[in-house]
Amino acid sequence: MRSIAILVCLAALVAGSAPSQSKPAPTKAAHPKSAHPGPTTIDVPVPPAVKARAMLPTLFDGWTTSKPAQVLLDPAAADSSHAAALKEYDFAFGALATYKRDGETLTLRALRFQDATGAYGAYTLFRPNGWAREDIGAGAASDHNHVVFWKGDTVVQADFSHVGPMSASEMRDLARQLPEARGNRAIAPPVLTFLPQNSLEKQTTHYALGPAGYAGSGGVLPPEIVGFDRDAEAVTANYTLQSGPATLTLIEYPTPQLAIAQAARIRDYIKAGSKAQPPFPKPLVDSDQASLEVRRSGLLVILVSGDAIPTESHRLLETVHFEENLVSIPQPMESEIAKTSRLLVGIAGIVVIGSFAAILLGFFLGGGRALYRIARGKPASSVYESEFIRLNLEK
User: Fold this and answer.
1) Which residues are paired to 239 by β-bridges?
2) Smallest Cα–Cα separation from 232: which of 204, 202, 266?
3) Which of 7, 178, 195, 241 lies at a 20 to 30 A Cα distance from 286?
4) In terms of pTM, does the model score above 0.85?
5) What do you get for the CA distance between the two ends of the chain, in Å?
């Protein structure tokens, strides 16, 4: 009876509290600032001046600078003699710093471009033919106290007051501190892949995106004949053939139609000879006129010039073949395809190991039970046994 009374009292209490629960007590409206949302990430753009100042270190290999690097935000400030060319190569910003060590002086000028294409073009502009090749960054050359190299989207010019045996090693240390270009910004000019490698003088390649860069690097044709206003890209390189030196010019256009039209224009210009307008530049004047030849292949217009005999010049010209290739964009980190494949391989490995473990476990448990039954004088299997459950019921 006491238990029944307790249950009745509890039911009454629950029924009485139900209405009060259905009407929540009034509360003050929450102020928007009272909420505490999770942390959010805001990408704040870094000003170019800050990026430029951070390009060069204040100390490396004993070289120290007493004041922050000078910021170069305008092509004219970066290099007044090549301002137009730097603009064509999409100059972004740069830095200039002077270092001291043991009475010696080192001046560094680092220029950043929008991508590796512009950086490579500027490197070929600053590197005259004949400079010795150096193993620094992605490419380097030196001439006595002057060194120029490029890496990713950056070009560095170094001027030593005195070059020592460790100067190249010091520049390699500096190159390692430069950031890597990412994604499609790290792709070098694809037109370079069409240059024949046999007999190529490696330190004579020049890449241009506009008339200023083309003329500044010693282009063979007048810039207005090339057609840079039609998004042309030009690369020139020297070759050492048996009969004499030759220069190969490759001009890439956006469409085959433009390439056909420009090939006809350049061919007519070459045929005009001394009557050509504008007049032949010095590289064409110094060439064997019988060896001058123009050919088109896909998006490319190829011109061979120089002093080699026509047979060898023609053979060099014919080695160029345009073929549309997919460009592989370098991945700075592991790609999603690689991650997925690695995950699938891991899952497959776990499944195989789990299956093998299950088989071993089943064999161990089943075999152990069979041995136990045999030891007790029973058959190994209990399939044919009738087992009963006995209930010991007592009153």
Assistant:
1) 200, 246
2) 266
3) 195
4) no
5) 29
Domains of the chain: 48-185 (3.40.1000), 190-318 (3.40.1000)
3-class secondary structure per residue, 296-334? EECCEEEEEEECCCHHHHHHHHHCCCCCCCCCCCCCCCC
Structure tokens at 169: 């090693």
Diameter of the chain measured on Cα atoms: 132
Within the chain, residue ranges assigned H as helices are 2-22, 48-53, 75-78, 83-88, 116-126, 167-177, 211-216, 223-226, 256-272, 282-285, 310-318, 336-375
Helix (H, G, I), strand (E, B) or coil at 129: coil
Q: Rounded CA gap, 163 and 145, in Å?
A: 6
The pLDDT score that the predictor gives to residue 250 is 98
Chain position carrying tokens 């090749």: 133
All residues at 6 or more sequence positions from 205 whose CB lies less than 8 Å from its CB, including other chains: 124, 192, 195, 235, 236, 237
Average pLDDT per 10 consecutive residues for the chain, totaling 395 residues: 43 44 43 48 72 90 91 95 97 96 95 96 95 95 95 96 92 91 88 95 95 95 96 97 96 96 97 94 94 96 96 96 62 65 89 89 76 74 59 64
